[in-house]
Amino acid sequence: MTGRIKLFFVFMLAGGGFLSQYMMSSGYAAQNESAAKAQAVAGKEPVSTTPQPINATRAAREEKILQDARRQQLAEREAALAAKEQELKKLSDKLEAQVKALDESKKRLDESLKQKKKSLDEKRKRMLTLLKKMRPEQAGQFLGKMEEGAIISILNDLDNKMVLKLVPYLSQPMVLKWIKDNLNNNS
């Protein structure tokens, strides 16, 4: 058989089944009605053998219960969300306070570094004026006891006349290095 014929056959059987069920239930309902009348005449209360249709108020109550449950779930979710938002706000405030404290610490540290640098600069200026007042031999001996990087830094801060006076009393490889550094910086 082809697919269309099979489909038609299935519909016919199903339709016949529904039709026969409808006919049987209507006959059954008529039978129940006559039995109920007979019992009412006899003074007995009729016993219903057919299932009662769902009461509309019962369905409405069940629907209301479902809606209330959904509302309750929604309210619980909203409460949980509000609690999380509150927690995030507290964490945000705490984080902002920490950032503010770090900024204040940084400002204090910067101020401290500025003060320290200012103090070192003043000491350095005093040392340079002291070196300028010394005789070149004494200044050369004094600088000769220092490390090379410090000597080069001091030579950079001194004026050219003073450097010329000190050169004969300093280590010549260090003086050559200082000259090369100055030539490279000026290029």
Written overview of the protein:
The protein is an all-alpha fold and 187 residues long. The protein has six helices and no strands. Helix 4 crosses helix 6 (172-186). The two termini are 102 Å apart.
Order of helices and strands: HHHHHH
Helix/strand-derived class? mainly alpha
The beta-strand count equals 0
Instruction: State Rg.
Output: 53 Å
- Average per-residue pLDDT, rounded, comes to 80
Beta-strand level of the residues, as a percent range?
A: under 5%
Query: How much helix is in the residues?
Result: over 70%
Number of helices: 6
**Poorly predicted tracts of residues:** 22-30
Short description:
The protein is mainly alpha-helical and 187 residues long. It contains 6 helices and no strands. Among the domains are: 1-49; 134-187, no CATH class.
Keyphrases for this structure?
elongated, 6 helices, single chain, 85% helix, mainly alpha, 187 residues
Secondary-structure map:
Elements: H1 3-42, H2 56-133, H3 136-144, H4 148-157, H5 160-166, H6 172-186
Helix pairs in contact: 4-6
